[in-house]
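ASSEMBLY PREDICTION REQUEST
Request ID: AP-0331
Submitted by: J.K., bench scientist
Number of chains: two
Total residues: 676
Priority: normal
Notes: Please return the full assembly, not individual chains.
Input sequences:
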Amino acid sequence: MEAKHILIGHGSGGRLSRDLIRNLFVKYFSNPFLDGLGDASLVSIRGSKLAFTTDSYVIDPIFFPGGNIGQLAVSGTVNDLSVAGAIPEYLTAGFIIEEGLSINDLERIVQSMAEEANRAGVSIVAGDTKVVKKGQCDKLFINTSGIGHIPEERRHIQSGERIETGDKILLTGTLGDHAIAILSARENLEPDEAILSDAAPLNLVTELALQTPADIAAMHDITRGGLATILCETCENRSFGIKLYEDKIPVKQSVKSICELYGFDPLYLANEGKIMMIVKKGTEDHLCSRLREEPLSKDAVIIGEVTGDYPGRVVMQSFIGGMRNIDMLSGEMLPRIC
Amino acid sequence: MEAKHILIGHGSGGRLSRDLIRNLFVKYFSNPFLDGLGDASLVSIRGSKLAFTTDSYVIDPIFFPGGNIGQLAVSGTVNDLSVAGAIPEYLTAGFIIEEGLSINDLERIVQSMAEEANRAGVSIVAGDTKVVKKGQCDKLFINTSGIGHIPEERRHIQSGERIETGDKILLTGTLGDHAIAILSARENLEPDEAILSDAAPLNLVTELALQTPADIAAMHDITRGGLATILCETCENRSFGIKLYEDKIPVKQSVKSICELYGFDPLYLANEGKIMMIVKKGTEDHLCSRLREEPLSKDAVIIGEVTGDYPGRVVMQSFIGGMRNIDMLSGEMLPRIC
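STATUS: Completed
Returned structure:
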């Protein structure tokens, strides 16, 4: 790595994060489970196949339009298991608390976690609490780790090994809502139409999709790095590329306006309630209409396809018909978004 | 709870921590797995019995005599699984990094984690990296979560349901080494005899003990809150008490001297490489001599017994023969010890 010190961009989910993971974590921890680098790791205990994942949440502010750090911490980890094809079952919660945090605030957060766990059908089975002095952390950080059973017939989803030319790219809803809700809270923006975080447990959506007669080759929740980074990672070193249609990508008008003001591209923004699915040609329309019946995926739409024309690359056909290359996120636009 | 704000003592592992856990986390997250409040939670996935645990590490300094935060994060979680009777198998690692941390330091820490995982025979299968701005955390916090299989015949160890009058209390080595090593580093003390942290993965010790023909009723690693707190929790609301013999409790002379200087009681200090076991009468001597063959438990000794005389209480017979009550830790002597 070229940097001698950790930069904010190392936590972005984009290129710097990837370099850090490959050059440091994978280098030392190397094992067949980790090397897959998926949203969750697939492990085996006494013949039982499990997905196992972890995420730390450092979002600022801890209460934001549409949610709080606790609700996010539960749904984020449920989602990492869900998009691996697993059925989320048990979560742990580790709290790092700054001395002086209001116990009322902590209680509201813990209560949200319980509600969100209940909604997702998971149990929070173990926890840990550390307290540091004032100024040694920023209010509250939460780690959640999760495990879930992964049925035999879903084991290809995590690796994306069945993705092939002709497959369709499905998006379950509008891009950028979570990131722009956080930005609005930080900057005291008052958009005409309130923008709420889309954070939600998405096992409802993935189960619905996996139980629909449609053939799903891959799923990813669209968090740090945004849709662009996730699609770039999907095609990297593969024989196919991905072609997106700009006019199909759904972004709310209020989100679009703030993005224009701040120079953000919704393709790179973190969502906490949207999934990208890669689905076999011919089954996409049925899946899309089925997903539109569920409130969490009511804006599901096909936004592109897997193509043999641009191997290893993501390209986007713009409104006016030109093609442009889409690269993964470099640097960091909005730190502490999750 | 009486406090309106989080105090340092809420992270001590003592009385305030217990109140926070019971009045907040257990209140909202309540489920049969969590309610056991053990070092790890026992869960079941498709008939497979697992222990699942989490711990966040915020130790200051991140490099200390005898170890670093990474080595501690791996062994601490391995130990929580081990004392539940589980065979630790997979770990996750979540990093919260302060912008500006030296990548060389991070690499040394990650390398130690890999070495420690290798020593314990576990794989680190998933990870997460968050970066916060300078001043928003203190260098580096690490969360590790872990899972392991728990054989049928060991499921009573976690609950302590088989503890009864006459059982013996075994300690695998000297008290206070870890806490006093950290204190020495913080205060630039230079004791005559160097004091090193005892942090180590203890599945070697628990496996040795569980494979010895001895009947083990309970095990706990002696971390935050110290031996006193762990024993108090063991007898709480039970029909038995625990009697300790002060002259049997091993403490290194150098640790004792610093404790006297700072007014610390080794009974309340955190260790990261010692276990308390409760073992059936008649099998304790055999277990003790077997444990002494393993370097990590070479100072194993019987320090007390389970008694019907003081139900729900821990008492200690002092050097001069008097009896005193031992209560759980109140407040916090040394924050950020793990």
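REVIEWER COMMENTS: The mean pLDDT of chain A is 94.
SIGN-OFF: pending second reviewer
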